[in-house]
Amino acid sequence: MSALKQPRKLSLEGKGTVTIHPSDYLTSGGEGELYRIGDTVVKLYTDKEKMRRDGMIAKIALLRPLKHPSVVAPAGVVALPTGEPVGFHMPYVSGEPLSRLFTNDFRQREGFTHDMTKTLVERMREAVTFAHDKGAVLVDANELNWLARVKGADAPMPYVIDVDSWAIGKFGASVIMPSIRDWHRATFDQGSDWFAWAIVTFQLWSGIHPYKGKLDGYGPGDLLARMKANKSVFTSGVRLNRAVRDFRVIPPHLAQWYEATFESGLRERPPSAFASAVALGGAKTVLYAVTTGAGTLVFEKLFDEPLRRVVGVWPSGVLRLKDDSLVELRTKRTISTNAPPRCEVVKVEGGWLIAHVENGTLAAEYIALATLLPTKLTLPIGAQGLFRSGDRLFVVTLRGITELTLRLFSKPVLAVGGTWAVATNSTAFFDGVGVSDVLGAKFLVLPFGESACALVRAPELDSVAVVNAKGFGRFVAATVLSKTGDYKLLTFTFDREHGAYTFAGRIVDSPELNMAILPKGVAASIENDGVLSLTVPTEGRVVEVRDKHITTDMLLMRIDDQVLAVTGGALSSVRMR
Amino acid sequence: MPRITTPDGMKDHKLGGNFTFTAKRIEHLGATEYTLVTVAVDESGSVSGFMDQLLAMLKEAVGSCKASPRSDNLLVRVLYFSDRYRGGVTEIHGFKPLAEIDPAQYPMPNPGGWTPLCDAVYSAVGAMNKYGKELYDRDYLANGIAFVITDGGENASVATMPMVKAELAKSVTGEILESMVSILIGVNTASCKDHLDRFSKEAGMTQFIDAGDASAKTLAKIAKFVSRSVSSQSQSLGTGGPSKQIAATI
Q1: pLDDT for B212-228, tens place per residue?
Q2: pLDDT tens digit string along B172-203?
Q3: Is A545 within a domain?
Q4: Over chain A (577 residues), what is each successive 10-residue block's mean pLDDT?
Q5: Is the pLDDT of residue B128 over 90?
Q6: What angle (nearest 5°) sits at the alpha carbon of residue B149, between those of residues B147 and B152?
Q7: Across chain B, what does the average pLDDT equal?
Q8: Which ranges carry the VWFA domain (chain B) (predicted)?
Q9: How far apart are CA A428 and CA A434, in angstroms?
Q10: Out of A105, A178, A240, whose CB is closest to B30?
């Protein structure tokens, strides 16, 4: 409802004097009222002191030159006949609030298609890029501060409004909607703008906020907690309703960018929705595909640089190259150029933790994902070594194994988490599992879940020598040398509580354990040339894929739930289609 | 009173105590999250002096919601209440998308009987809990807002105060509905506003508003209040609330 009760004369900079009437009222916002006079909209601030106190005349002078078809910038100051400034004017644009375009109902009613989404998203990217090029930061570009004209010539056309709230020059922003805020940083810059852009445009593709959908451990109202924990719709275990549109409508390279933004803290300019080249993670070239009874097995090249061979892969998405540099696979950014020989890399809040043990002392470094800036971390703890399970990292001490945790305050702080008493001097630590020998009685040491660790008596190991082992979640595989001189593969499949297990064992040709155990409960292994075994240990199901391209020199690894193979220093993904 | 809505795509639901309601079949919904809105209007004999304004208010309140940026995320249910109806309420339409509602077709209230206020609140909030749970089970996010507009105190309900309290308590746990707001609005209640205030507090409603007389101006204000509150509640679901001041720390 208009606060204006009678006509009022106003002076519009660059346009002369006009009279506005109560009937010209359009709407009210948080800071003022809008009136429309022909093709011009006048914004009158409710707070009479706003113009003077916030230096709005100078700010409008900075914003006025921002000429772009999608940017509804102030065009001049509005003043009373006395000369007292009371607001500003801008061009009139008409469009739908972006939130309407998220719903299937609106899209069906208005015939809004995925191709139109693509155009709209690209134009929104251009508008934000334009603002950044001019030194402005949008800060609060939420879905209600974007309009979209969906009909008429050149549609769909986005318009970003509320431009007077932008940060530019010495003028900062004062408000932001919680649902688009980058909760991992205290300042607002181009990176936080791209995060907000990601939140808003992702809903145009899918219809759902990227940190919604049901996820165990989070309630219906835990949006901000999910944002802070990077638990987006790409997180394994999120359940979505049937109104959510298939993410496959998003161009693959842009989908990768969204996932990296929501899950890993990437804060970079997105690739164009129209780009034909893959911008992130390098071009995924299909090396070959094998059709089997269980589906098609596809090998896709992910990283293959002749002078930079891959020698290791961490589940955190980081590659170790032969020249001792560490590279994030998703973006191909180098996060460290001189990694210690026996270091471990795990994903932590807002970046990575790189740690190694040197002369009985823990040495650690935090790499910020957004900036790649390293921060040295200290923790006075006597260390014999490190033990890693997925993205959980433990320091091995004389007392047992102690989990390392990282907290982001004003700066990253390394702290100790839970400690499990293990006779470390008589424990051999392998990939994700330890085998402890307590006076001849063997125990498995198996971290599981987010903060648990099982110590389980395993008498099947008592009379054998464990040569190699891998463990994750509910599954442990170990190659052992028996007293008769045979190599055996022993497997332990645990119940949910890790209190009991199902055991199996068989003789194998060699102690090699070429296996990747995925968080979703599937183990992929290559024991002999020509056969890839996919096992679901908890269900006892095994699928064997046979092809001549499958060889034992393919070293199987994993990142998240994706199986990878390193062959001759080149990295490819292995998946069923 | 005959239903003015088509039953197409709607499903009948039962609450306790022979209360029923209808709602859009979940498989027909086109948004990923919804704000459930209920407007319950008193149709007892005492509103006969201003039933025209009451109807105008209802049309304006629901019609104005169409201007909300999140109008396609609203499911609206409207009911009249009077003890002339079985269970104290009659549903004008169940929870359905705003785009499918034509407020111009709302029927003129036909005043008569006593005021089953407990029935009205129980039906309004109970239906939101029941439908909200179905949405939750199907992985939809939902919150709710209910308005009960009356000119008199409770005097004829089938539902009891403990039943009402239980439903309201269930609605605000955050386990089914992300959030829930329930507002009792008194019109022309000079003689019973204290009674209504006590009722709202005892039941556990979010707020009681004494709107004043039953003039066209007052009812127009109520209509605006309803549509703005609906818009605000829906925005809260989608975005965590309006833009907020930026603090120096995170």
Answers
A1: 998 999 999 999 999 99
A2: 888 889 999 999 999 998 889 999 999 999 99
A3: no
A4: 79 94 85 91 92 94 96 96 94 94 93 94 97 96 95 93 94 90 91 97 96 90 92 89 88 91 91 66 55 72 86 93 91 88 90 93 90 89 93 93 89 91 92 92 93 93 92 94 87 92 90 90 88 87 81 88 89 84
A5: yes
A6: 140
A7: 90
A8: 36-226
A9: 6
A10: A105
Say whether both A216 and A125 belong to one domain.
yes
pLDDT band per the 50, 70, 90 thresholds, residue B7: low
Q: How many CB atoms lie within 10 A of CB A396?
A: 21
| Chain A closest-CA separation from residue B176 CA (Å) | 8
Domain carrying residue A69? 8-91
Q: Is ipTM > 0.90 here?
A: no
Q: In chain A, what residues touch B72 (CB-CB under 8 Å)?
A: 100, 103, 105-106
pLDDT of residue A486: 83
- CATH assignment of the domain containing A155: 1.10.510.10
Whose CA is closest to B206, among B189, B223, B182, B227? B182
Q: For residue A177, give how far its alpha carbon lies from the nearest alpha carbon of chain B (Å).
A: 4
CATH fold of B32-113+133-237: Rossmann fold (3.40.50)
Contacts of B241 in chain A (CB under 8 A): 177-178
Number of domains in chain A: 2
pLDDT number for residue A283: 44
- Shared-domain flag, residues A251 and A162: yes
Q: Say if residues A513 and A468 touch (Cβ distance below 8 Å).
A: yes
CA angle (A431, A402, A475) in 5-degree steps: 35
Percent of chain B with pLDDT over 90: 78
The answer, as to whether pTM is greater than 0.95, is no
pLDDT, residue A291, reads 66
**Residues A218 and A105 both lie in one domain:** yes
Best residue in B243, B245, B250 to probe A by mutation, most A CBs within 10 Å? Answer: B243
| Beta carbons within 10 angstroms of residue B17's beta carbon | 14
**Pick from B72, B244, B250: which is nearest to A100 by CB?**
B72
Nearest CA in chain A to B28: A243
**Average pLDDT over every residue of B138-153:** 94
Q: Are A260 and A179 within one domain?
A: yes
Which of these three, A62, A91, A120, is where a domain ends? A91
Contact B242 A30 (CB under 8 A): yes
CA distances from A102 to A14, A176, A210, A245, B173 (A): 38, 20, 12, 10, 28
User: Residue A281 and residue A319: Cα distance in Å, rounded?
Assistant: 12
At A123, phi and psi to the nearest 5?
A: -70, -35
Name every chain A residue with its beta carbon within 8 A of the beta carbon of B140.
241, 243
- Selection from A49, A1, A41 nearest residue A20 by Cα: A41
Q: B168 CB contacts (<8 Å, ≥6 apart)? A: B121, B125, B182, B203, B204, B205
Task: Tell whether A134 and A240 lie within a shared domain.
Answer: yes
Domain termination site, one of A227, A245, A264? A264
Domain shared by A23 and A157, yes or no:
no
Evaluate whether residue A24 is within a structural domain. Answer: yes
Residue A302, helix vs strand vs coil: strand
